Amino acid sequence: MNIQTIMVIGAGQMGSGIAQVAAASGFHVLLHDTTPEFLNRGMQAINKQLSRNVEKGKLTPESMAEIVSRIRPTEFVEHAEQADFVIEAISENMALKALLFHRLDSLCPPRTILATNTSSLPISEIAAVTGRPEKIIGMHFMNPVPVMPLVEVIRGLETSQEVFEVVYGLSQRMGKTPVEVNDFPGFVSNRILMPMINEAIFTVYEGVASIESVDKVMKFGMNHPMGPLELADFIGLDTCLSIMEILYDGFKDSKYRPCPLLRKYVKAGRLGRKSGQGFYTYQ
Ligand code: CAA
Question: What is the ipTM of this complex?
Answer without folding.
Answer: 0.95
